[in-house]
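hiii so um. not sure if this is the right channel but i have a protein structure encoded as tokens and i wanna go backwards to a sequence. like what aa goes where. can anyone help
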């Protein structure tokens, strides 16, 4: 038997649990390997796949899921077998009932004889029960039916349960679901005595028979009375070491139990009550009680009430007095707190009366002072413009007196969770006559860190619609001009060194990371004296705040070509007749909202593998792979996995192709649909 095996180097014995319940087969999950010094956790690489240990052994087949067994394994050499290993031997381990190690003798006896043990799923009848001081019992248990608790088996003799010495080093148990199981071979063998687990009433009856030799045990006999004379005789019996049990091992166990029993009879009234309850359960006593008339019962009840009433009355009156005292103390504290609160309220009213006129005067003085400061600031700015040290076109986008179309507007907005974003985008696009695919392409490219270039007859409609969706209607505008010759000129204005609108938008996004900041670089084609934009775009992608969204516009559609880039980042905003009809209808749009930055989606292994296969076939160089991954992740707010893969792949295009195109009526034709029609026609 595996649980008694001592050669743990010559035989590999595993402990594990069943994976499921089946009437024909079982699969086991190995948890640990038995070694002479204890259990060793099983390395996952040894059993990498589910169901690698297969068994048809009747000891484990039909067992419920989670049943704990011991087993050895051998390789599965059957042709076509899906499992790498099958069981060679199967056995059930011995369970160690650790919760009884620190229990008192009475508590341990009650569990083993009356309330029973909860052993979860296990069926092995023998268990190891620690009783303290390096000793353990090894009894057989039984239960009345499935799901019942385990108690001492009938074939065990409760007056002499064998006690063994705990093996050197302990049982080196392994814990599964709060149940401990001993290492194979750690079975107690050296007997050191016996212990008595008889119930108190049964033990008392046995003692009375021994002391008096015979006992009638009737309702009128003295055998049911624990008198002082009986206690004296029991103490003498224990002191003189008289033989109580004739069988081997029973005498010492009974004498130890008598010592415990005498202490209970002497000091514990609860123990006497327990014994009395057990004796009252005797059939003859119950029959005598049943023969009592109603008058006798009423007399007994009245006599007991008269005896208990003074004590109960005194106890109740004492408790009531304590409650009244506690109530009076609480009422006193409440009066004290109420008085202090009234005093502080009066003091507050006095302070308000004194401070009211002073605050009114202070507000009036501050208003006049701020008005003078505003007038002085406007005069200084006008003087600076006339002196030529500040240009209205470039720097005005970042000041308070800038034009309304070149600065952020202030609106009342609401937070828009990502799960509501697509529906809100469709509703707003429909009200403006704009195709929702335009918003989708614009949003995905912006949140992926790209700078989409917008062109067409409905660019401003698309910008306003997207700003109302993600930034509460706020969009900072930065017009570009021929003085911009490099990326640094986008951060500080050439000549003056002032911070640009782009720099202020970057800092605003870094300060408030949970809100999107939208910036538009207007008239990109006007700053075309130097090919600075590709370098600027790479630097922007490498370090931008994730909540900073940048778009660009051009005045000439031909200059909107994406030069030297692997991704098609141009967005055609030709709404056509649909925008015209939507403007005539004058449909009222919902209030502006702010998109809550969506969390980065988590890819499953299957999704990651299919995305890798789809995008790796495209080819490319530089940082194209990382950019495609960012485009895919940003598009998951709009699309499922397969559609997001297609969208990311569709952004890879020649430099002169937009991210999508529109037909004559303003309907958007995605890139993948264009490619499919080309392939069919070819």
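sure thing!! here u go:
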């Amino acid at each position: 038997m595996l649980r008694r095996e001592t050669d743990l180097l010559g035989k590999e014995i595993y402990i594990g649990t069943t994976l499921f319940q089946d009437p024909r087969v079982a699969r086991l999950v190995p948890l640990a390997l038995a070694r002479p010094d204890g259990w060793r956790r099983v390395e996952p690489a040894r059993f990498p796949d589910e169901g690698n240990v297969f068994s048809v052994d009747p000891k484990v087949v039909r067992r419920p899921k989670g049943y704990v067994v011991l087993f050895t394994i051998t390789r599965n050499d059957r042709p076509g077998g899906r499992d790498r290993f099958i069981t060679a031997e199967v056995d059930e381990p011995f369970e160690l009932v650790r919760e009884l190690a620190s229990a008192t003798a009475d508590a341990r006896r009650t569990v083993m004889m009356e309330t029973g043990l909860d052993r979860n799923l296990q069926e092995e009848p023998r268990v190891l029960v620690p009783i303290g001081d390096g000793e353990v019992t090894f009894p057989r248990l039984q239960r009345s039916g499935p799901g019942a608790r385990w108690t001492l088996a009938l074939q065990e003799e409760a007056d002499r349960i064998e006690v063994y010495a705990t093996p050197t080093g302990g049982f080196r148990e392994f814990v599964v679901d709060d149940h401990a199981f001993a290492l194979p071979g750690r079975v107690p063998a050296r007997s050191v005595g016996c212990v008595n687990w008889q119930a108190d009433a049964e033990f008392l009856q046995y003692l009375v028979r021994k002391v008096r030799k015979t006992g009638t045990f009737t309702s009128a006999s003295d055998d049911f009375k624990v008198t002082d004379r009986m206690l004296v005789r029991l103490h003498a019996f224990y002191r003189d070491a008289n033989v109580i049990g004739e069988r081997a091992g029973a005498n010492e166990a009974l004498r130890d139990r008598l010592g415990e029993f005498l202490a209970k009879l002497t000091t514990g009234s609860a123990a006497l009550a327990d014994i009395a309850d057990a004796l009252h359960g005797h059939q003859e006593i119950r029959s005598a009680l049943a023969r009592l008339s109603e008058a006798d019962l009423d007399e007994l009840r009245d006599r007991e009430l008269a005896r208990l009433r003074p004590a109960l009355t005194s106890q109740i009156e004492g408790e009531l007095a304590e409650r009244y005292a506690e109530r009076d103390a609480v009422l006193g504290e409440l009066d004290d707190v109420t008085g202090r609160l009234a005093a502080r309220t009066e003091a507050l009213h006095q302070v308000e009366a004194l401070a009211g006129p002073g605050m009114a005067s202070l507000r009036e003085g501050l208003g006049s002072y701020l008005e003078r400061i505003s007038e002085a600031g406007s005069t200084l700015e006008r003087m600076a413009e006339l002196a030529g040290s500040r240009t209205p076109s470039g720097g005005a986008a970042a000041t308070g007196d800038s034009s309304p179309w070149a600065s952020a507007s202030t609106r009342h907005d609401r937070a828009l969770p990502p799960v509501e974003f697509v529906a809100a985008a469709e509703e707003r696009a429909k009200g403006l006559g704009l195709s929702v695919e335009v918003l989708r392409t614009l949003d995905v490219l912006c949140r992926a860190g790209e700078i989409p270039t917008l062109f067409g007859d409905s660019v401003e409609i698309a910008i306003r619609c997207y700003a109302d969706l993600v930034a509460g209607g706020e969009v900072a505008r930065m017009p570009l001009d021929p003085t911009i010759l490099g990326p640094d000129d986008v951060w500080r204005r050439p000549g003056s060194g002032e911070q640009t609108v782009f720099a202020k938008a970057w800092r605003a996004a870094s300060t408030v990371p949970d809100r999107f900041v939208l910036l538009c670089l207007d008239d990109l084609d006007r700053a075309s004296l130097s090919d600075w934009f590709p370098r600027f775009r790479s630097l922007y992608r490498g370090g931008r705040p994730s909540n900073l969204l940048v778009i660009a516009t051009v005045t000439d559609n031909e200059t909107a070509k994406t030069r030297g880039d692997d991704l098609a980042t141009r967005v055609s905003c030709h709404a056509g007749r649909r925008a015209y009809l939507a403007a005539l209808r004058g449909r009222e749009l919902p209030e502006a909202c702010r998109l809550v930055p969506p969390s980065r989606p988590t890819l499953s292994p299957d999704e990651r593998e299919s995305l890798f296969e789809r995008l790796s076939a495209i080819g490319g160089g530089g940082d194209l792979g990382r950019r495609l991954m960012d485009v895919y992740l940003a598009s998951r707010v709009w699309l499922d996995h397969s559609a997001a893969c297609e969208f990311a792949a569709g952004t890879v295009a020649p430099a002169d192709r937009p991210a999508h195109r529109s037909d004559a009526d303003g309907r958007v034709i995605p890139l993948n649909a264009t490619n499919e029609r080309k392939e069919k026609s070819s």
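oh and Residues 200-290 form one domain.
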